[in-house]
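Message: Study each token:
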Amino acid sequence: MGEPVTEKWACSSFYNTDLDQRLRAAGIDTLVIAGLQSEFCIDTACRVAQSLGYKVTLAADAHSTFDNPVLSAHKIIAHHNRLLSGIVESVRPAAEIAF
């Protein structure tokens, strides 16, 4: 209750929102990314946040997706953990992320 909420209408939480401005005003420069859907919003959030200069950690076991006709959800998640490990500051299990 009382937490800020950013409504988004695209894969990027930053596109046409005030999220970047609010984070900067609060002095936040490090983000932990988690949620749905690995190949859409999670991938985009990691890439855009990193390009905006944030230190990004992807919680490797705290994002998910659905099976598709080509790959299982497990493989999609593993693929994005590997792919994004070359882009963001770190990819690690949620239990290893310290605040």
The radius of gyration is 14 Å. The chain has a mean pLDDT of 96. The first strand starts at residue 30 and ends at 36. Helices lie at 19-25, 38-51, 73-84.
